[in-house]
Design brief:
This protein is α+β, with helices and mostly antiparallel strands and 475 residues long. It has three domains: 191 residues, Orthogonal Bundle (Triger factor/SurA peptide-binding fold), CATH 1.10.4030; 119 residues, Chitinase A, domain 3; 101 residues, Chitinase A, domain 3. 48% of the residues lie in helices and 17% in strands. Helix 3 crosses helix 6, helix 7 crosses helix 16 and helix 8 runs antiparallel to helix 9. It is flat, with a radius of gyration of 27 Å.
Amino acid sequence: MFDYFYTMQGMKKVFVLGAILVVGLSNSAIAQSKKVVADKIVGQVGDKIILRSEIINTIADAKRQTQGQENVVLPNECQVLEGQLIRKALLLQAQKDSLKVEDDEIEAELDNRIRQTIQQYGSKDILEEIAGKTVYQLKDDFREAFREQKLADQMQRKIVDNIKITPTEVKQYFSRTPTDSLPFYESEIEVSQIVIVPKANKDVEEYVAKQLYDYKKQAEAQGPKKFEQLAKNYSEDPSVKENGGQFTLNRNDKFWDPPFLAGAFRLKEGQISPVIKGKFGLHIIMMISRSGDEAIVRHILRIPPITEDEIKETVDKLDTIRNQIKAGKINFAEAVSKYSDDENSKFSAGSLVGRDGSTFITLDVLDKDMIKPISDMKPGDISKPQVFLNEQRGRKEVRIIYYKSKKEPHRENLKDDYNRIAQRALEDKKTTTLEKWFKEHIPTYYILIDNEFMKCSELAQWKQAAVNAAEVRKQ
């Protein structure tokens, strides 16, 4: 995962791997844990050291994770070292201010990263083979780094979280921006939706459940290999081609469908569940292995087919909801909360959200089935129910669309884009505050920088502190 990071020298924005400010279980770090390599200390803040390998790993991971992406500015070694120096300084101050991180928080974060990494490699066994260590040993290796990161994050929040921005400051920030530097926005719209997934006929659902019980009997008679074969042949989970229906679960992970998760953790190793009804369809689950809150399972998903009768019932239901909204008996946001099955927009009053988190989006963000009705609507309109294909789920769904508002193409201005400008002004103020904090605190630390980095212009303040520290040592 990547984060934006500002260097202290001129606050130039560069794209750097989260390992500078966000610790991750990176491929190169894991690979390096398998072997002993020549290493040396290239930087130090107080008693916190920075190794040459940390710089190499960060840049290698940045290259790997941005491969094929356009307009990405990768960090150089000087910038990576500066990021590490900043992190160590924040850590020292956090310890000085007696900030604490609970062990449970660290363990939860470690478990989450381990799960993500296992999914990247395909299985726990492959990860352990590449690393040359067990998952538990890997967690031990990374636990202190995660704790340091959490403390540094806490310290940064302590410095900037209480900073607010006033309307006057927003106007002053905007006035300092040259007109020819202001971004130009294409036409943007605000769109909300209520989505309902048609429910299968009970008789059809029972028929599919009987098929799953037949798969269960076959697998119980012939073993795990048969279950895997049945999953590949019959499961309607889109990921089955890649993983054979296998997943790594954690009991505390909120990502999974609750009935699926609960059903899985009721099983013993080798046991197959009864048919479980979840939000994506009907499942049977086989427990492959389990250790505490961690489990590896394989499942078969079947989605009971929807007939035109169920689709028509859903269309009629949404038509009634639309009429209630238009009559003022319920507002759109309330109807979303009460009726919508779309989890992506259910808790944002049905609003579709752009890549920057804004509710104003360009037409290219819309799915192809939404573009046509929107083109025939005007702001304030609510569409008639629309049947569309959810390509991600491979099923037909029904929705009504609320065309809330529209912005014409325009150069950025305070009237139309105040929230965007205010967010940038706030980030600028936080950056200035952090920069001031470091200017005040860098001279108070013992700093060491290796000679190979002494030519880095980004490290001017740190180098001066290192020179001062060296002079003190000579006295």
